[in-house]
Amino acid sequence: MRAQSRKSTTTALIVGLGLLAACGKSPEPVSVPARDVECMARAMYFESNRSSRDGMIAVGTVVMNRVHSDAFPNTICGVVGQANQFAPGVMSKPMNDRSAPLARATALAVLQGERHPKVTRAKFFHAAWYNANYNNMHYVVTAGGNAFYEKRRPALVTTPNPLPPLEGITPL
Q1: 34-156, CATH topology level
Q2: How far apart are CA 133 and CA 135, in angstroms?
């Protein structure tokens, strides 16, 4: 029995060392369907006003939060194409200026796991200039021309007004 215990300990140690050695490596890119990249890029392009990478990552984080929520469709294109949720024409208007490549590259980054660190669980946003008079909006960040928020019971809202814009916190 003692030899078996030592063998298990040795095996666990080798596996643990292998995991530690892998910690310093960059994660391998994840393959994602081109349709998902295109739908995500469209949401980022039209919703962040093509203004910043941070804004695009924040929009992408909201899309992913919605995909993982039971309250929304469970696909990227289903979320982005949902009626009355994103900019009119988000699925059909052309993306033809200099920001389209950035939107596609940023979409790929989100689909491979990057998230905006301040968006956390937020599933909603509106234009930063818009004054929404609801008492259940807990704002978490303003980026790319949008104010991002979580819906909460009014007693749990601690940030009821949009925050000042914050840019330059997502890596390039």
Answers
A1: Arc Repressor Mutant, subunit A (1.10.10)
A2: 7
